[in-house]
């Protein structure tokens, strides 16, 4: 009896988490100008809203922009972070601990503090309204931390024997280290992707031209413009939600490991 | 070992990669170089710029002119700033304990139930708000909360409870936003707690159980102290995130009604990009930086103490 009650409460809590998204999805399948006919009947479902947003060139541009920026951010972050993580974990050099500490220190800087100076820097570089401005600031020190932690676990002998065989440092990194830290790379990739995909404030500021906007920025303005057709807004919202959701479903375990790893930093 | 390595590399030069040549003797610096450059350009330089701008009347368009402490003096007279400080603190003080307790509760409940289809489902469900963007969350919640015929209000209607004006009533709007934030963040912290709970050796709790300690006592005297590092992390992250709340409020209420949900970051944004008072915006930003740094220092000192006690 007690066990049954516990199960019921757990399901209730889960529903509370899911229902808003279910509602979003259900509304997206209806042509509704009221949004307030909350019903789960399946009779008047239609894909019209989806057809409409995919005929909307702006929406497709936003979607592709978000996709390109997020994927580039993933590549940039994984490459740079794993390189730095390798150096911090396995190479000896002057000031190693200090530089690592200072890198981690950048994590406490609220991105909102750097926002306006970043805007000024980007304007001086002439990078506003370019992919450069949207992609280059994506890597953070979290990646180095995750990479360093997992590279530390690789036994030193493995690298030493490669070195004696005459393998260059770069080849050791490419051919020995990278394959061994694949789980961490996947975790960091999903992490970066979801973070970049959901980013809002910086793209809002760094872009003024419609052709450079990302999906979140586009959605926020779409929400203001089309408040009459909730179905359309919800179709857009569903499309915004879907990529992260698919990523999460496919790679749930690595995702959770990534959270645990990045959150447990000292 | 190091000498051998250098000798070997010197004796037979292999084909040279671009990065290797670039790095030369300072190979390690070549590895950390690219990231250091990005972090330096996009985090360190902005901090110094931010401090510099706060002493100027910069407005993005014209050249900044030095005006001393006048921006800081203006803070004291700015009613919106006072409201934003107050709201940010209320927000943080409400959200952090709520999401910490809720996530700890959920994590220990799920772990104690063991792995089953239900617990995996709950874990997944809790995580759905985490992976969705704040913009999306606000769009959906706005529709759920607004209007007489909205789903939530319909349920309240059936239960015969008068529906409050969730986002338009200045006495409750902040609490509604806090609720949504807790709803969104709990899944994330729950995962942290689950990871922390998994690290506790089973024989600790088992030994206590054998000695006759009840479930609650085991939790209070063994589990909770061992989870302290995780808790410090959860509280720290929760504080930093709460201090930085923007997306939700920007899209949901715009700080209103009045200044009832104005926060520090929204005030920064408005001053920088709406009122074109960038120097002043940076002054507020430096206050925010100060609070974040305080949170980090407190966290560090707690962690230090923690290490000497436990390890």
UniProtKB/TrEMBL annotation, chain A:
Subcellular location per the Swiss-Prot or TrEMBL entry: Cell membrane
Transmembrane segments: 7-26, 59-88, 100-122, 128-151, 230-251
Main location: membrane
Topological relation to the membrane, as annotated: Multi-pass membrane protein
Keywords: Cell membrane, Membrane, Transmembrane, Transmembrane helix, Transport
UniProt domain ABC transmembrane type-1: residue ranges: 63-251
Pfam families per UniProt: BPD_transp_1 (PF00528)
Family under the similarity heading: Belongs to the binding-protein-dependent transport system permease family.
Identification of the protein by name: ABC transporter permease subunit
Species assigned in the record: Psychrilyobacter piezotolerans
